[in-house]
Amino acid sequence: MVELITLILFFFALYTIVSLSLNLEFGYGGIPNFGKALYVLTGAVVVGGILNRLLIWYFGIEGDFISASSIAAYKMTELISQNPLLGLGIFIFCVLLAIVAGAIVGALSILPSAKLKEDYLGVTLLAISEVVYLILFYNTEIVGGYYGVSTPDILAFIPGEYRMYAYTVLGLICAIIVYLFLERLLNSPYGRILRGHRENEDLIKAFGRDVMKLRVKTMAIGSAIAAIAGVIFVFYSASVVVNAFNRVEWTFYPFLIVLLGGKGNNRGVVLGAFIFVLLKMLIDFYKFDIKYLLHLPFEAVWLQYIIFGILALLILCYKPEGILKERPIFTPPIKSRINE
Amino acid sequence: MIILETKNLCKSFDGVKALDNVNIEVEKSKLTLIMGPNGSGKSTLINAISGFLKVDAGKVIFEGKDITNREPHEIYNYGIVRTFQNPEPLKSMTVLENVLIGRKHSGENIPNALFPSRWLKEEEELVERAFKILEFLKLDHRWDHPSKSLSGGQMKLLEIGRALITDPKLIIMDEPIAGVAPGLAHDIFSHVVQLKNKGISFLIVEHRLDIVLNYVDNLYVMFNGSVIAHGKGREEIEKVLNDPKVIEVYIGD
Description:
The complex is a heterodimer of chains A (340) and B (253).
Chain A: H1 2-28, H2 36-59, H3 65-82, H4 84-110, H5 118-138, H6 140-143, E1 149-150, H7 163-186, H8 189-199, H9 201-206, H10 211-237, E2 239-240, H11 247-261, H12 266-294, H13 302-318, H14 332-339
Antiparallel strand pairs in A: 1-2
Chain B: E1 2-13, E2 16-27, E3 31-35, H1 42-49, E4 57-62, E5 65-66, H2 72-77, E6 80-82, H3 95-100, H4 120-136, H5 152-164, E7 170-174, H6 182-197, E8 201-205, H7 209-212, E9 218-223, E10 226-232, H8 233-242, H9 244-252
Parallel strand pairs in B: 3-8, 3-9, 6-7, 7-8
Antiparallel strand pairs in B: 1-2, 1-4, 4-5, 9-10
Organism (chain A): Methanothermococcus okinawensis
Membrane topology (chain A): Multi-pass membrane protein
Transmembrane segments (chain A): 6-26, 38-59, 85-108, 120-138, 164-182, 219-238, 244-262, 269-288, 300-318
């Protein structure tokens, strides 16, 4: 039971980070980022593709990338188990690298689409994301593709039975930092202009704003944050398996969370992430019981997709504003007017 | 004094001339009206001036500077703002936010947004001014309502409010009183006249001539992409309105 709760909290942290970043882009900014999974994957590539290569080079390991990675990861894990600071140092290094890489990938991928209106923009981002995903999946040279690669366990200094808890705490700390960062960033004129962009980009243009710049900046920040989640997920699994970063898990589900919790409301999104992960885990846990109880005429694995698909439709039809409605941005001078 | 002029503006859509050598002049502190039947090129003209359409040939000169084919957000920097044909408030945002968003703000930049001390003072002044504008437009009692709760006429006023906070030199309005009850329509123009007297210039496209002609200083009549008549001052405007060419265009429509 404790394990299940820990698992729920760990994925709650991950989904909170990714969904909050999507809320920045989509909830506030109206950018339909159907390519969200790509930016989470960017974080994974930073660990599997960059960190692993650095380690292989450092240890001077010969041979093909995948087996060399296993040896490097093993050697590094050994070192970390003796030296906690090394593990945390590597984690922070990877997070910083992921922030930079995420920001660059985010900014670049919106460039060709920045002159397009909403629908085309979304499709373009989806296409870019899928192309990169497929390349990384079928090319085993970059991050191991469908074979996957091992990565070091950065918390190897913690005894095995507490490993899971430690990763959960790490994830939750990151989620809290991301939440506080975004709340501060968005309760400002920047948040206001983002909402303006969502409501009517022509109007924002007519009032002197460079819409392209605004989108590039917003995508850079959102993607940098999503990449952090990728890093945490990879270290937790101690491997990169590209198909763990598919569009259902990291694009569709974050959208569902944002819609469920409340577009443009960070607190709502956190709540949405919690409800979603709870539901996901329960379905995962009880799917076979549900199948036999209800005599479902399909495989139990499809249950999750079906339930979440229906949930998405129900929200869009009956409660498009989500559980917690968006609130106006109250900067301090505006707040003081309310109290008057 | 002329604040804006267009010189031989041309724009074609698939071979159809939407603007055919259009020359207009907008005087400072005056209300210039462009009239003409549907499809005569009025909206194309203001879209071209405000940067939403690129012209094929010709020039737009504002205060002596060539602003032809600049991006809309660059044109704003010269002191030109525009409203749209359909009132386009930022629907789910409050009335106050709709006005505030008109003006560029240093708190919109990153990383400034993260440090309220860098933009709080500016925000305070801006909120103060926004309230003054809302009082002037008699919308202040609704400042914290979502703008979608306003009536059509109030939305038009809100658009003016958003333009005002930018300290514009020229306000371009695309049908500011379309679909607005006559009482409120006159109200909108009495606001325009007050602002005009303070030195703001107006370029307006409007169909409801019965109302708007009471306030117009200069008039251009367009048809099939060309200016077919124009007049400056009351007398000339009367003449233009009685011009057989102009009457024919309207009856023909």
